[in-house]
Amino acid sequence: MKKKITFLGIETSCDETAAAIVRENDKGTADILSNIVSSQISEHKKFGGVVPELAARAHLENIDYIINSALEKSKITLEDIDGVAATAGPGLIVCLTIGLNIGKSIATFTNKPFIGVNHLEGHALSPGLETNIKFPYLLLLISGGHSQFLIVKDVNKYEQLGTTIDDALGEAFDKTAKMLDLGYPGGPSIEKFSILGNEKIFKLPEPIINKAGCNLSFAGLKTAVLRESKKINSDKMKYDLAASFQNTINKILYKKTKIAVEMFKKKTRSIETNLVVAGGVAANKSIRKNLNNLSNEMKFKTVYPSIKFCGDNAAMIAWAGIKRFNQNLLDENNVIAKSRWPLDEKAPFMKGPGLKL
Ligand code: KG4
Ligand code: ZN
Question: Fewest CB atoms within 10 Å of the CB: 77, 92, 243, 308?
């Protein structure tokens, strides 16, 4: 029987310092021997967003402790692992460098293979930690920095069907929460307060809803929220605007996911369609309910990682490392951090002025 591979994963691409020990199991999924995430929310709260230098300093202060905690909790030693995986991009260079360098050092000193993981591949493969899901599947990746529809054909093989042409969805949530003074991070607070509001009160735009295939756009919606937020004079109105924003996001995702599912079916000719929704925003229960309605209507299956694997974590990085190791996709120890690193290198760059749709 093939040996079950165990990896140490390290994640420091943004504002979470994380380490995890993950092992393959007989079910084709993962045993999470440990999964330690130290969030820097309190550090960035007063600035209403992530401050790169502060984030980097916090990673530096915490990373040794977090890796040691992950090893201790897993009850194994570095001797027992088969390799080390650390996020190499995309993200903040000053932050990525910290986890990447410590990962490379551990791999060198223990003489183990090293893999520099694409953070987006970590999210893309994250449902595999708990669910044995077959390729190809359709991925809606919604996080603080990215919003994309992709066909996940295999490990390392992605085809982008659509992407945001301006803001990422998590960014739209964070900025809306900031404009409404609902706290940081914005996604969870919009989710919480929108339950208290009436989603029908504010009419907000659904940018590029009837054009550009399954590409997405949230900048115009954000501007409309800013305009409407000036009219607010009570908490009730604030909650109504949060609810209207959440409802508009749901309408956009419903329509665009429908288009993406049709594209996926046409391109892959798969008998069954599995839609994986991953990334920090996939934790949003209203979005899950909305996409479940679409899946009932169109008869496809939805797969969501557990909430703890939606936001940034190192278990998904270790898992991507294991998957790449099994396909012999190893890296040299000279991998450098990359701020931009698309999963589908051939996909056109969609952001910027003068974009023709
Ligand atoms: O994947 P992630 O942890 O980090 C990136 O790779 O960017 O995603 C973070 C984003 C933030 O914008 C945060 O506000 C959003 O995910 N988020 C949510 C929820 N929880 C986190 N957005 C909407 N609803 C939520 N419950
Ligand atoms: Zn992420």
Answer: 77
Nearest bound ligand to the CA of residue 317: 2
Domain edges within the chain? 6-130+308-325, 137-304
Query: For 313-345, how does the pLDDT look when each residue is reduced to its tens digit (9 = 90+)?
Result: 999 999 999 999 999 999 988 999 999 999 999
Q: Does ligand 1 lie within 6 Å of residue 143's CB atom?
A: yes
Is residue 37 in contact with ligand 1, taking CB distance under 6 Å? no
CA of 44 to the centre of ligand 2 (A): 17
| Closest atom of ligand 1 relative to the 123 alpha carbon | 1
Q: Separation of 185 CA from ligand 2 center, angstroms?
A: 14
Taking the centre of ligand 2 as the mean of its atom positions, its distance from the CA of residue 90, in whole angstroms, is 9
- The model's pLDDT over 158-217, given as tens digits with 9 standing for 90+, comes to 999 999 999 999 999 999 999 999 988 899 999 999 999 999 999 999 999 999 999 999
The verdict on the CB of residue 167 being under 6 Å from ligand 1 is no
Ligand nearest to the CA of 92: 1
pLDDT for residue 352: 65
Q: What percent of the chain has pLDDT over 70?
A: 98
Its CATH architecture, for the domain 137-304, is 2-Layer Sandwich (3.30)
Q: What is the fold of 6-130+308-325?
A: Nucleotidyltransferase; domain 5 (3.30.420)
Q: Is the CB of 145 under 6 A from ligand 1?
A: yes
Res 354 pLDDT > 60 = no
Q: Can you list the pairs that 189-196 forms with residues at least 24 positions away whose Cβ atoms lie under 8 Å?
A: 190/242, 190/245, 190/246, 191/246, 191/284, 191/285, 191/286, 193/238, 193/239, 193/242, 193/243, 194/239, 194/242, 194/243, 194/245, 194/246, 194/247, 194/286, 195/243, 196/239, 196/243
The pair of three-digit structure tokens given for residue 223, joined into one six-digit string:
């501007």
- The residue behind tokens 């460098």 is 97
